[in-house]
Design a protein that fits this description.
With 145 residues, the chain is of the alpha+beta class. It has one domain. 39% of the residues lie in helices and 15% in strands. The chain has a two-stranded antiparallel ribbon with strand order 1-2. A two-stranded parallel sheet has the order 3-4. Helix 1 packs across helix 6. The longest helix is centred in the N-terminal third of the chain and has 11 residues.
């Protein structure tokens, strides 16, 4: 696996992705280098299942994504070239979409565990940040060394 995984996940005031990772791993993660270092330490990578898409009606909900082109080549290469044990999804919806669009890849990699975490999106407000944090802490790998 790349010693410095490419981190593309943007940070927004409303989305709790990096806030959750800061709390789970007790790191500042204030810049790209720190985020890449954490993922390298965890032997984790971060990618999107969608390579490109458009949005209908200018809405930012996932349900408004159209003309999707899936990130098939990158995801296939990651699974082929690395000893992947788990794939984490930030939401049940993206996990279900992955299962539907990557069926063949999953059948070849049936040893890989699939874990859906609660969405860090502000649209998923039925769980408090504290409850999401508890779930993330229980599911994500611990730092070693």
């Amino acid at each position: 696996m790349n010693p410095r995984p490419q981190i593309w996940t943007y940070e927004s005031e409303r989305n709790q992705f990096w806030k959750l990772f800061r709390a789970v791993y007790n790191r500042s993660l204030s810049n790209k280098d720190e985020k890449q270092e954490l993922f390298a330490d965890l032997k984790m990578a971060n990618t999107d299942i969608i390579l490109s898409c458009s949005r209908k009606n200018g809405g930012n909900l996932d349900s408004n994504l159209i003309n999707k082109i899936y990130n098939t080549d990158v995801i296939t290469a990651i699974l082929k070239e690395n000893p992947i044990e788990k794939i984490f999804f930030t939401g049940k919806g993206v996990e279900l979409e992955f299962r539907a669009k990557f069926k063949e890849l999953l059948s070849v990699n049936s040893h890989v565990a699939i874990v859906a975490l609660p969405s860090p999106s502000p649209a998923y407000a039925s769980l408090s940040f504290e409850k999401k944090l508890e779930i993330y802490k229980a599911a994500l790998p611990a730092l070693t060394g």
